[in-house]
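Lab manual, section 2.4: Encoding a predicted structure.

Procedure: take the sequence of the chain (370 residues), apply the prediction step described in section 2.3, and record the output as structure tokens. A sample record is shown.
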Amino acid sequence: MQLSDLQNLKIAVIGAGYGGAAAAKALSLLGARVDVYEQASRIREVGAGIGLRPATMNRFGEWGVFDAIAEVTSPSDYFEILTATGDPIMKEAWPAAGEQTHTHLIHRGDFIDALMGVLPEGMVHLGHKLETIEDRGDCAALTFANGATAEADLVVGADGIRSVVRHQLFSQKAPVFAGEHAYRTVISVDDAHGMVVDDNLRMYIGRGTKIYLLPLRHRGQVSFDITALHPDGTWAPEVTKEDLLRTVEGFDERLVNITRDLDMDTVNIRAVYDIDPVGTWHSDSVVLVGDAAHSMLHHQGQGANSAIEDGGALADALREAGSVKEALALYQATRKPVTDELQRISRQGWTEDEIDEVFPGQRPATAGQE
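Recorded output:
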């Protein structure tokens, strides 16, 4: 699109998570007027750590925000998968992207703070929970629970796995329970029983459980995540310390001790969900990004990275195409095959042979889905 057309474009982004913030940054650099509408009254990311892949860091370099992100990360050379008792299974360097060879490990809260910090003042509007979206072809109209209304030439639905935009315009399929729970917290390196010796991600697997140790040594901390098979599909299930200890039976005694020492008030407990692939991500004036488009299981660590790549690809498409409609088609053609495959791989987790070997007879019948 011509620079003058982009500068006249009014864009509304629904959601100020990773995908929304990244899209807002990329789109604002085109010269468009961008407003971000977030339902929360304050931006707060709970949970633990994530890894920003080399390709993702390249995007931040393009947007001029590499240093703002990198300074609150720990750069990792490789990731390692081990048995429950610490025997090595696999050790690989992160897939390089150009000169970038490190995956940068970051706390979710630091990441969203850094993204918010590089958006222009006044762009983000808190306390705006989307109620309805009306697709009018050449524009879309929005109404919010607080009574506010807005209209935009392009609406970017970045409102997560339970997206209102997706539900009202593209797919009414409910999220799909994975038969797993995720228990996430951040602890001091001093409380890691000597298991954090460098900046590399390690995953221990066995008995239907995966334990992730993701160092955040720039903070003097480590993200400690347990993913365990469980039939309860309640979004925020109630789990006790004893429940957690049962999931880590047979693991390295140091991992058991870390679990035993946890303050349960600091543990984020969630049932694990994804969504089935969505056939179409866009209309003439509305488009989905991030989890709203392709929420995936966390086994490959690609959710946040994919959301950020979406934002970059959407901005690229608007720059290259002749119209908004053409740009949205180009964006979907570029990103959907990639995320469809990531969704498939993440849902699979391992090959069937590996699942049988690592998790023999451990997959439970699911129950309690919402």
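Check your result against the sample. DSSP finds twelve helices and 18 strands in the chain.
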